[in-house]
Amino acid sequence: AIQMTQSPSSLSASVGDRVTITCRASQAIGYDLGWYQQKPGKAPKLLIYATSSLQSGVPSRFSGGGSGTDFTLTISSLQAEDFATYFCLQHYNHPYIFGQGTNLEIK
Amino acid sequence: QVLLQQWGAGLLKPSETLSLTCAVYGGSFSGYYWSWVRQTPGKGLEWIGEINHIGSTNFNPSLKSRATISVDTFKKQFSLKLTSVTAADTAVYFCARAGGSILFDYWGQGVEVTVSS
Predict the structure, then answer these.
(1) Residue of chain B nearest A33, judged by CA positions
(2) Interface residues on A facing B, Cβ-Cβ cutoff 8 A
(3) What's the average pLDDT block by block, 10 residues per block, for chain B (117 residues)?
(4) Mean pLDDT, chain A, whole residue set
(5) What is the per-residue pLDDT for B84?
(6) Which of residues 55-94 of B touch A (CB under 8 A)?
(7) DSSP A42-70
(8) Which terminal CB of chain A, N or C, has fewer other CB atoms within 10 Å?
């Protein structure tokens, strides 16, 4: 199975900061990667699909990039509601694999 | 608007069978794959498997064939059974929708399942 390495595992930042989270796949996965946000006690929420496409209703401060094995999620200017846990997901092949998550905390 | 609502037993004993169902309200049922995903503090999010409206399935080999997923297209429901559960299967279980390049745009609310003697 493809392995997904997500970094950092935790991140402290302030409102207004620009932050970037990365996921590295153990083999090339094309553009078959999504990013999700999860808040405590809730289901994950899709933010980005196909590496860089913004899901409907998601603020434009979220953006995704990359290809092949290296991918990024960038939040251009953190808002209070962005403090949450973020996951990547590869769906290039089965089994689909999630990254281990990045816990984004308020500094 | 699409809504996924899931239910099932939340407390099991070791060796029992986990059984969960997810109902889909709104939107099309065909043309998508319908997945089960679980989450534990230790292992994070784990994809279990998926089914489409005609019953084609894919599974995560990590479940070692203990998982089965079935579909009732008329009721717009799909179900997960996981046999021979152990404490390692204690998790929050989610159902979710996948279509083309857009995976898991809609999720159920999650059901917490605890396996304990």
Answers:
(1) B101
(2) 1, 31-32, 34, 36, 42-46, 49-50, 53, 55, 87, 89, 91, 94-101
(3) 97 98 96 97 93 97 95 98 98 96 96 98
(4) 97
(5) 98
(6) 58-62, 94
(7) S--EEEEETTTEEPTT--TTEEEEEETTE
(8) C
Record: contact B104-A34, CB cut-off 8 A: yes
Question: Could you tell me the two tokens for B34?
Answer: 């319908």
Q: From CA A18, how far away is CA A25, in angstroms rounded?
A: 23
The per-residue pLDDT for A22 is 98
Tell which of B50, B93, B102 to mutate to test the A interface (max A CBs under 10 Å).
B102
Residue with tokens 């932050």: A19
Question: Would you place residue A43 in the very low, low, confident or very high pLDDT band (cuts 50, 70, 90)?
Answer: very high
Q: What is the pLDDT of residues A25-41, one digit of tens each?
A: 999 999 999 999 999 99
Contacts of A97 in chain B (CB under 8 A): 47
